[in-house]
Amino acid sequence: MVLLFHYLSLLNIFDAIITYFGLENSYILEMNPLMSSAYAADPSLFIFIKLMFSLSIYLFILFKKVPTSSLIRGLTVFASSFYTIIFFLHCYWLVMLI
């Protein structure tokens, strides 16, 4: 589970950077309504929320409190899988821009 938490956190950071770049240059639209509202309010707020989410995940690791229930494992696997798809989508966008 700790490895999945690391993976999810890193993918979230990558998503924050690439999405910010895409939004700032009008290459993409944010599909998450909550994050779209945060970005519309202030792009710094968008980055702050994304980084705080990753920090929160790392705090579980740091304090050795990573949950091990089957529900949390399933949610973490789902989120990691989703972010992996997003990662490849972002890579595709970057290749298309070059």
Describe it.
The chain starts with a helix and ends with a helix. α1 packs antiparallel against α3 (43-62), α1 (2-24) runs parallel beside α4 and α2 (33-41) crosses α3 (43-62). It has 98 residues and is mainly alpha-helical. It has one domain. It has four helices and no strands. The longest helix is centred in the C-terminal third of the chain and has 28 residues, at 70-97.
Strand and helix map with partners:
Elements: H1 2-24, H2 33-41, H3 43-62, H4 70-97
Total number of strands: 0
Mean pLDDT: 90
The general outline is globular
List the helices and strands in order: HHHH
Helix count, DSSP H or I runs of 4 or more residues? 4
Q: Which residue ranges are poorly predicted, with pLDDT under 50 across at least 5 consecutive positions?
A: none
**CA-atom Rg in angstroms:** 14 Å
User: Largest sheet at a glance?
Assistant: none
The number of domains: 1
How far do the termini sit from each other?
36 Å
Structural class: mainly alpha
**Helical percentage:** over 70%
Give the percentage of residues in beta strands: under 5%
